[in-house]
């Protein structure tokens, strides 16, 4: 479904060259729930950004459903990100001036989905994460766990096949963290493919497979 072949990523400035990823090979199969672990600065978020087509590798190939991403134009990449991928961030990235419902609708605006359908899909997504009673609230009125639920609802509102989660429980206590992972596991049970970056061994043990990175290199 999502395949990385010999992926390298190097960041360059006028005086410094930093190798962030070195020869990463990873095949994510449909329906898998994979966790990515490693010390800070080892390349976990860089890997997730490349998988999500938010960043380009310096070398290697990315394929989604057998199609090489390098062959896609910018508009095709944007469409692919919007339709096939859902993103969950540690810092939530909610818009404080918008209601919970309006925040969840945002990805559908880029698809030019009608207001009626946007509203229906957003309500459905919020029901899945247990926040149907908070639709009219604003982010500042929510707890950290509730904000992350909104972020998950926003990620799944377009019914993506692949969900990429960067430390989704990193800002939460253990109780809330487990509740968020319960939601992710339910989404996985319903067919979503998930790749999650985490520092938490207990969370990683609840996923199907663990990928470890160290200094940008995959540990086998």
Automatic annotation (TrEMBL):
Where does the ABC transporter domain lie? 2-219
What SUPFAM superfamilies does this protein's entry cite?
Answer: P-loop containing nucleoside triphosphate hydrolases (SSF52540)
UniProt GO molecular function:
ATP binding; ATP hydrolysis activity; transmembrane transporter activity
Q: Which UniProt keywords apply?
A: ATP-binding, Nucleotide-binding, Translocase, Transport
In the UniProt record, does the keyword Nucleotide-binding occur?
yes
Organism expressing this protein natively: Persicitalea jodogahamensis
Protein name (database record): ABC transporter ATP-binding protein
Cellular component (GO) terms are: membrane protein complex
Keyword match Repeat: no
Q: Which family does it belong to?
A: Belongs to the ABC transporter superfamily. Macrolide exporter (TC 3.A.1.122) family.
The uppermost taxa in this organism's lineage are: Bacteria, Pseudomonadati, Bacteroidota, Cytophagia, Cytophagales
Q: Can you tell which superkingdom this protein's organism belongs to?
A: Bacteria
